[in-house]
Amino acid sequence: MRVEAEREYGDYVEARAARLVRFAYLLCGDWHRAEDTVQNALTKLYLAWPRLTRTTAVDAYVRRIVLRVLADEGRLARFRRERPHDTLPEPPAAPDATDTLGERIAVIEALRLLPPRQRAAVVLRFWEDQSIEQVAEALGCSIGTVKSQTTRGLQALRGLLGDRVSVSSERSER
Amino acid sequence: MTGLNELLERAVGDQPALSVTRETAVAAGRRAARRRRTLAVGTCAGVLAVAGVATVALGAGGGGGGGRAPAGGPNTMGLPVYPVPALPAAAGVPGALQRPDLVGSDPLLSHFTVDTSAWPLSEATYMSSDGSETVSAGGLTITVSRTRDAASLAANPELTQLSASPGSVVPNGDPGTTGDPGLIGSPGTTDQPGKTEKPTTVGGRPATLTTRTETGGKYRHYGLLWQPVDGLWVGMSVESATAEAELWSDVDALHLDRTGRCVVPFRLTDLPAGAKVLGCVAGVPVPGQADVKFAFSSLLVGDGRGDQASVSIGEITRPDTGGDVGPNYSPAPLPPPNRTVNGHPIFWSSSRPMGFISDDFDGVPLSIDVRGSYREPQATQILAGLKLSANLIDPKTWPSDPIGR
Q1: Could you tell me which residues come within 8 angstroms of residue A24 by beta carbon, excluding any fewer than 6 positions away?
Q2: What percent of chain B shows pLDDT beyond 70?
């Protein structure tokens, strides 16, 4: 890669790596795996970098790589080495509103209990603030599937997190 | 009640210190690119193997450890090695060993050479930046630097995340270690699986040898960091499918007392007022490869204050075509030429990167990217004065000075 392009790639990594790792963490529930996954994704990005020119498109491209790497390695399904449940178990204990650590654990636990595609749809939609069309493209599925996966994911999260989460059904359908 | 976005943000609020950095990402990318490239040419380059050259290099005064003393590693007799295409010698110019202070001070000079690589290669790429000079050749990367950081990064970028501890293999009195605790950890231990680290010597000087198994376990990475003389650092990165002996073979092939001229297969006869050479990347193909006609080379020229033009051949970055990218992305064809400069039809892109671009400029991909206040007139001036060498393989035939009439 030419020197300038490599510098631009480095600028991108510097600016985006932390958020990409957070994205991967929400999907896999393990910081080490998240970093490993993002490092793999960024290596693939390095090889593709000379062909990519738009930062926004690069973000979408890297998110797709992260999703694919996680899916390929079974990490989406093996969220924290555990398998998704067909039925939702008992919700995690509701922490006090001021219990930040407890809240983090509860949210991550709740995400863990979602099937992989629901989890990815919810994270892309509500944390990455992606449109339904963008989520569909990222997940390689139809808009209808995104809507249904998002709705089910939200319902499950509400059941698990109780009244700590507020998301309008309107937003989930938009 | 809290919005989901806010809840998710809080859930990632305990993110630990990031181990993915610009340096680790670039280093991993370079390794992947080298693997891809080397695997692509492995069969062809295999016929260029020259058994026993490492021994000859050592006997001829090689050895990166101080320039003359033999390396401290195992005997390298019998290892197949591959010639690294060299830059033309810069007669009378002292090498890094004699004048560490000159390393990275002139973009048109490389103050070290390497004769061979233990891995097959299709080309060697020489680069010079402020304070550091690098050559990449197949699975081998060597950075010779006035600063410890740059050399450390070349030797083993992942080590930037390790904690320093007593017993680190750092020569006494090294000012580069002050305030820089994260580069070398305790010998024999690392905080990452599959890695080892141990002290060693190169030419009698203390050094740190790190090893790591690549993902998938197919290749082994060796990193070596040492200071052959005060004020000079050498970082070496070697990928090997076999043994550590390959690393020491590469050490033996390193000459810190020889200097090469950074040359490119073109000449710029007309530059904007005040412009000079700011950077040089010389890509030198291994001769005799039927399917290799040229390598990537680039000159950065400018006024040193932000007005710059990068003239490159061998690879091009296509301008933004407005389309999205994805896993199955393939680059769109270049738009048709919209300018003619000196009889050459060529496309001018006013989007990023701004400049001229052609995938067939007398048979070679070529681009001139401009920055700062440089615009089409400056790019046109440079392109109009560009003289491409007839021979794109042999650096001895390239202009000794890449600018000027």
Answers
A1: A33, A34, A35, A37, A38, A66, A70
A2: 71
- Inter-chain contact B29–A2, Cβ cutoff 8 Å? no
How far the first Cα of chain B sits from its last, in Å, is 73
Residues A153-162 pLDDT 10s: 888 888 777 7
Q: Decide if the complex's ipTM is over 0.85.
A: no
Long-range contact set of residues B369-372: C-beta below 8 Å, sequence gap at least 24: B369/A4, B369/B309, B369/B310, B369/B312, B369/B317, B370/B308, B370/B309, B371/B302, B371/B306, B371/B307, B371/B308, B371/B309, B371/B310, B372/B302, B372/B305, B372/B306, B372/B307, B372/B308
Which residue among A21, A111, A166 places its CB closest to the CB of B2?
Answer: A166
Among A46, A139, A150, A166, the strongest candidate for a mutation testing the B interface, having the largest count of B CBs within 10 A, is A46
B11–A164: do the CB atoms touch at under 8 Å? Answer: no
pLDDT at B306: 86
Query: Is B96's pLDDT higher than 80?
Result: yes
Domains and CATH numbers, chain A: 1-83 (no CATH), 85-174 (1.10.10.10)
Interface contact A131, partner B, CB < 8 A: no
Contacts of A1 in chain B (CB under 8 A): 29-30, 33
How many Cβ pairs closer than 8 A exist between chain A and B? Answer: 168
What residue has token string 């040492």?
B226
Q: What is the pLDDT of residues A31-68, one digit of tens each?
A: 888 888 898 889 888 887 776 655 557 888 888 888 87
Q: Average of pLDDT values for B133-149?
A: 87
Q: With an 8 Å Cβ cutoff, is B299 touching chain A?
A: no
User: Could you give phi then psi for residue B248, rounded to 5 degrees?
Assistant: -70, -30
**How many whole angstroms separate alpha carbon B383 and alpha carbon B363?**
15
Partners of A101 on chain B (C-beta within 8 Å) are 14
Contacts of B179 (CB under 8 A, 6+ apart): none
Domain ranges for chain B: 22-83+130-254, 266-318+337-397
**Section B70-98 average pLDDT:** 77
pLDDT at residue A16 greater than cutoff 50: yes
CB contact under 8 A, B320 and A53: yes
Chain A, residues 82-121, CB within 8 A of chain B, namely 100-101, 103-104, 107-108, 111
- Is residue B33 less than 8 Å (CB to CB) from chain A? yes
For B348-392, how does the pLDDT look when each residue is reduced to its tens digit (9 = 90+)?
988 766 899 888 899 888 989 898 899 999 999 999 999 999 999
